[in-house]
Amino acid sequence: QVQLVESGGGLVQAGGSLRLSCAASIPTFSEHTMAWFRQAPGKEREFAAQISRPGDNAYYARSVGGRFTISRDNAKKTIYLQMNSLKPEDTAIYYCAAAVTGWGPGLKYDYWGQGTQVTVSS
Average of pLDDT values for 53-77? Predict the structure, then answer.
């Protein structure tokens, strides 16, 4: 059974940093494109960042580019989201997702985690 488990969320002041992790129980983890999404209160879930299978390519939503960095460790079957210069508008539940095939915008994701709460105070 595939599971994605996020961790690392919490409460941080504006300007601070957090590092999220997502541990995957996917036998073929290195063959999956991975991503982070987020959902703020009262808003739809939105894309944040995506990383390629070997981890050598990534792209970001405009709202987080330059502040967030996605990475992965295929040996540990884990992805990360380093979030710097956090803003109150980054407050959301952050989800990781895995796609069996494909790369790029509009990708369909096959597996989702339960999410981890990030709250940024002003």
Answer: 97
